[in-house]
Every structure is written in structure tokens, then in C-alpha cells.
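quick one before i forget lol
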Amino acid sequence: MTVELKQIALRIVSALVLAIAAVSCGAAPELPPVGGQSGQSGRPTLAPMLETVLPAVVNISTTSTVNVQENPLFNDPFFRRFFDLPDMPPRQRRQQSLGSGVIVDSEKGLILTNHHVIANADQVTVTLQDGRDFEAKVVGADPETDVAAVKIEAKNLTALPFGDSQSLRVGDFVVAIGSPFGLSQTVTSGIVSALGRSGLGIEGYEDFIQTDASINPGNSGGALVDLNGKLVGINTAIVGPAGGNVGIGFAIPSHLAQTVMQQIVQYGEVQRGQLGIGIQDLTPDLAKALGLERSGGALIAQVQPDSPAAKAGLRPGDVVVAVDGAPVASGLRNTVGLLRVGSEVKLDILRDGEKRTVTARIAKPPRERGEAAKISERLRGAEFGAIQSGHPLAGRVQGVEVLNVEQGSASWRAGLRRGDVIVSVNRKDVRTVQELLEAAKAAQGPLLLNVRRGEGAFFVAIE
């Protein structure tokens, strides 16, 4: 290498050394906040948002009475009489569970949570972030959407505003807040993994937000918020081995939870309407067979006689493409099921390739109900009816659903709870309220009820 080339090389190296030294001595460039604000330390942070949100998320603990499972023979009056066994009430034990909730109305003390968090609870206790405890009153619940509302009498509450869950997009950042395993005020973050998840068999009406924000047992009923600190979902369920988190969690969209809550507060229950149609998704093969160019929408497979759909002129083979102007990709059952009884709905349909608009008035679903006092004095305080479509055992067993049980009644003390399904009375199968009525009237001595609850079964004896 010549002297001239050596001098040029030395100049280049010197320039590089000076440049590196200048960068090292200077202040590092400030990184822009990722999904949050920049704190005093200059780090991206969600802390300012969470400081306003956390007081609105509460811990919910419940206490309930459950019957201890015994050999069914010991509940059989004939078996007891044969072996001269004394009549004894079923053994019971107290059971406690934990969950979460979200204050949505600070003036009324109204808290949103999941139905399964407070189901069959004798007592519901709400613990606030500041440590205050309050006994809550259950305003109402809807098992089919797994939404419930409870109320506390308290001052200086912080409420969480509702966000627009319908504007969420896959990839949006979200934060889950709740009490997993009793660890209150736990915060986890993630993104929206998917929208409109259904067909999971978790609830009767499903339109879940899927997220990878960690959700574990105890998070149920807690808040899923966006980075503006607004409520976009109620954390509800997870998919994972042994109930652990694997990054697949589900939340009820806030627009669905809010609609259900409004009906619960006003009526004490959801007055779910019906059109009287059976539907299925319009697949590309079905669209081709029907001579349609599109494959989105809900295909009407059945129209019940004298139903609102029949009166509106709907026919099997019609394709519903929009409800009140909102496009229907699928999930028509969810949309109609949340419309109030008596309201009118406009349906855009395709029939023989032509677009039409029809108007139908939502009607109350036919529901066979019976007060227990009219069935048997021994069942006073309970109400029975046909198994509802959203019940976990619907289509799997035949029987009569317990629609309501008055706390402290003989039915309650015997262990009957709302949502139970009675499949037999004194070892005689019952499929309708009328059959339950006949079996109860014909019974001599105690009533022996075979009850299904979840995946288990047991007997209840009522004197």
C-alpha cells in the first residue's frame, strides 16, 4: 500500500471513531410510545390509563350451598324403607368461588359480571380496589349470553365507560384486568386475535372477542379494555389444558353485554324475541345450487306456522343478507335474539336472485311454564319450564328445566337450583311441565327427583 493510500485510510478510520464517539456521548433518541403514553422515565407505559381504570374493576366472591354427592340408593325411599333406614335431609356443604366484575354505573352501584360467576350463589360479596367490602344484590342474569348484573350500595365509586367493540379490528391492543386465582387487580396485555368467534359450545349466544391477553380462572367477569381505557369486553372463558392459559381467551363484546344489561335492569331478565325460522349458513355450494352469485348471509331452512316470519311472508330458501341495514355474514340468531319483543325489524332478503325487503314484528318465544305451587305444595317456591335453547343440556336430555327457585323454600333447601333439569319424578320420566304436574299429583309420600346439573346427576327427596 502506498503512503498516499495509507493516509486516506487513516483519515477514514479517524472519521468513523469520531462519529461513534459523538453518538455515544450524545443523548439516545427517545423511542415513541408503543400503545401507551410516555412516563416520567421516558419509557412507554400504560400506567396513566390503568390508574383511571383499575378502581372500576372489582373482586367478586360468592358462597353457595351444594349437596354432597351420595349413592343414589340412599335417596330412594323404597330402598330406605326396605332396609329401615331413617329419613335424613341430604348432606350439604358450603362452597366458595371467586371472580371479577366491572362497575359501569357509579351512581347506581351497577356492576357487570358473568352469570357463571354468581350462579346459585347464596351470598355475593364485592371487594373494591380500596379494600371496601359490600354485600351485593343480584339484579338479574342471562345464562344464554353468560351476562349478569349485581348492585351495591356504596359511595365514591369509579365507573368504566363503554367502548365501541364493533369498531375493534384484529391486531388492536387490549388489556385484561381481573382477579385470576384470587390475585386482585391483575393486569395483562395482548391484542385482539380474532372477532366474531362462535360455535364453541360455551354459551347459547356466542359472538366472542378472542385475545391472547392472559386470562385465567378468576378473570371471569373482569374487564377487557382498549388503550383509551374504555370497556370493550367482559372476560369470560379460556381454551387450554387443565384450565390454564395458552394465549386463547374469549370476551363478550361490550355492545352485546350492554344490550343484555339494559334488559336485565329494566325487566329482570332478557325478553328474548323470535322470528320463527330455522337458519343455516349459506355455503358456496348452497349458493350455487340456489343460483346465487354470492355466498354470504343466512339461509332460511324452515319457517314455523303462525310465526312472525310466516306473517311477514318469509319462505324456506330465502337468504337474509341484512337486518335493519346491517349486513349479515352469519350469526342471525344472535342478532334477532337480542331484539326486544314487540319491536319491528327490516330484513333484506334474496329470493330467486332478486332482492326484497320485508318487515316482521318480533314475538315472544312460546314457553311452557308452570309455578310449582300449582303443581305441588311440596314444590312451592319453584318455577319450571321447557329446556331453553341455550341451556348446555338442550338437545342432549329430555326433562323439565328449573327456571327459578325462591331462596329458603323447600325446593331450595332440598338443593334445587335455577338451571337444573328434572328428568324423572319417583323414577318416572318427565319431559314436559304437564308430565311433571301429573307425576307430582300422583306421588304418594316424598317426591324423589332425578336431577341433571352440568355433566353430573343426583337425586333430591322433598317431603
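fyi Residues 15-35 have pLDDT under 50 and may be disordered.
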